[in-house]
Amino acid sequence: MRGPGRAIRGQTTWALAGIGLLLLLGLVTQGRAGEASLPGAPIASSAMATPLPVGSLVDPPAGNDGPVLADEPYRLILLVPYPDAPYWQAVAIAAQNRATQDGA
Amino acid sequence: MSLPNAAAPDQVAQIKAATLVGVEGIVLGPIDPIGVIPGLDAAAAAGIPVVAIGAEPADGVVSAVVGDDEALAYAAGAYIAASLDGQGIVLDLQGDLANPAGEARARGLRAALARFAEIDVDARATAWDPDVAKTVAESAFVIAPPGHETAPPTPLTPDPDGPQPSAIFAASDAMAIAVAAAPVVAERPELVVVGFGGEPDTLAAVANGALDATVAELPGRTGAIAVDLLVRHLNGEPVPPRVDPGFLLVTDANVGAALAALPAATPMAGPDG
Fold first, then answer.
1. Helix-helix angle B130-139:B173-181, to 10 degrees
2. Of A42, B44, B217, B240, most Cβ neighbours within 10 A?
3. Helix, strand, coil shares of chain B as percentages rounded to 5?
4. Domains by residue range for chain B, with CATH
5. What is the pLDDT of residue B99?
6. H/E element holding A99?
7. What is the mean pLDDT of each run of 10 residues along chain B (273 residues)?
8. Is cis: bond before B189, omega within 30 of 0?
9. Cβ within 8 Å, pair B264-A50
10. Per the CB < 8 Å rule, is A62 touching B224?
11. Which residues of B touch A60 (CB under 8 A)?
12. Could you say which DSSP state residue A42 is in?
């Protein structure tokens, strides 16, 4: 596994930090979940988002490109400018779901 | 969307902090594609790849998932032209032409409508301000009282016989909502009103008939593709420098499905979990 991170099986952790502009994303990777945080940032308890419906007319899945099987476990961080905006919330949900799929 | 310049340094600080926590990659929605460059430099120095969403910095990212604003606006224009049978006046409530997104949206709309000789475009700048957009729309349907032709004060009286817009294009979600709610617009069911964006309020406005259509980005595809690109890069595969996630024209024909596909209202946990 790359990087230090504490492994928590089946759990994904989200945290908001800074002045609300930062969404920190810990991603499940190959059956294990990495947890990452910024120094001093509050850590949220596990809270999974409701997955986006697949096959929906408004936002069809990106099935033509993935999921992509990762060669190694990984942890990614997602930084969005407006975490309260519906657009960015939808981006975050999809990124979370896809990261789990890609790491599975 | 107008982006506050003051926030760019904050995002740079967040990127720099992210390089210290041991992640393999960053998915970033740049708040300012130029102002964020020092943060991208820090990520590069730490050997952490970045995939951008929604904006394309000139350098420092392995790929960017960016919608084609011009294509979306072109689709909106094509819808408007078809709805008007190729003739009429289209009021283009632009965002800010100094902003690349605003300029692209204006260009796309104009390109679509330029194919119709009997369609005139009345373009107005709004600086992305919904209140300004609403005021501009209201003013397009009035004439000045006698003696105030150049600067009508108040009250403003609708002119049923004068040249008036037969369609309105609003270049953002918030502007579209504001314009659709203006009485002078709402009272004209024959007016074709088209927005830009797929946020819940905008889709609801299409569903209730306040808007005729909107061109919606696809944030779900965008987020998934961004992660795929980053994982491919981590796998050592080549990735394209830019990917267009596509878009959808939402009308009364498909707005039900669009609303049903919206994500949960509160998908992310805050500091308290």
1. 40
2. B217
3. 40, 20, 45
4. 5-67+218-245 (3.40.50.2300), 69-217 (3.40.50.2300)
5. 82
6. helix A86-103
7. 60 93 93 92 97 92 94 95 96 90 94 96 95 94 56 43 87 95 93 94 94 92 92 93 91 88 44 32
8. no
9. yes
10. yes
11. 218, 221
12. -
- Residue A11 pLDDT: 26
The token pair at A37 is 């945080």
Question: Out of B226, B257, B267, whose CB is closest to A50?
Answer: B267
The reply to whether residue A94 touches residue B262, judged by beta carbons under 8 angstroms, is no
Contact A30, B24 (CB under 8 A): no
Helix, strand, or coil (residue B190)? coil
Kindly report the nearest CA distance between residue A29 and chain B, in angstroms.
11
CB pairs under 8 A between A and B: 230
Phi first, then psi, for residue A16 (nearest 5°) are -105, 140
Low-confidence ranges of chain A (pLDDT < 50): 1-58
* H/E segment holding residue B196: strand B192-196
B253 touching chain A per CB within 8 A: no
Q: Which chain A residues are within 8 Å of B4, Cβ to Cβ? A: none
pLDDT for res A63: 54
Strands (E), B7-134: 25-28, 50-53, 63-65, 87-94, 118-125
**Contact assignment for B216 to A58 by CB distance below 8 Å:** yes
pLDDT at res. A76:
92
ipTM of the complex: 0.77
CB contact under 8 A, B21 and A39: yes
Q: CA-CA distance, B203 to B89, in Å (whole number)? A: 25
- Domain range summary for chain A, segments of one domain joined by +: 1-38+69-104
Q: List B20's β-bridge partners, or say none.
A: none
Helices B219-234, A86-103: axis angle to 10 degrees equals 40
Instruction: Kindly report whether the peptide bond that precedes residue B155 is cis, defined as omega within 30 degrees of 0.
Output: yes
Contact B22 A4 (CB under 8 A): yes
Please state, in angstroms and rounded to a whole number, the distance separating the CA atoms of residues B233 and A79.
18
pLDDT given at position B101: 87
Using the structure block, give the residue that is written with the tokens 């596990």.
Answer: A46
